[in-house]
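Q: Focus on the chain.
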Amino acid sequence: MQNISVNIRRLRQKQGLSLRELASQTGITPSMISQIENGKTSPSLATLKNICDKLETTIGQLIDDKASTSDQVLRLTERKTMHQKEQGIYIELLTTPDPYKQMEPLYFTLQPNACSGNEYRHYGQEFLVVLKGKLEILLNNNKYILNKGDSFYFNSSTPHKYRNLSKGNTELVWIVTPPSF
């Protein structure tokens, strides 16, 4: 999470934005952005996505801003992770950062009762496949229950949120296009 904090501040300053300017553009308070930049709090995925959109970057680039177009193999031990501990969500990036890639494959692990919290809505499309457990997706107020082996495809502009219905961890591969992580 330290890389994210440092890189948010670096990008904000590089673009000549004050805390207040970024706050007004994202709808996040200046004190919250300051706490994120100082590593005192971990932003939710929705908050982080909103900041990334305004800074014209991706979460993957914030985690490790060394973009590479030549690395095609990413070893299990080299994956970058993002933890939403308070939400019980762990996300691993399945590719190296690359500003030219067209999709972002992610490996999600959702602890029991973990949920996305707020609804998400953004440009793009998403595909996921459940590898273990049971997932509920609310898509425009329609409820879908997915079990191991089930897959789901939808337009990201449709309001959506999710939660783990399993008593254990639910694991899935989630692909987002265009990349936002």
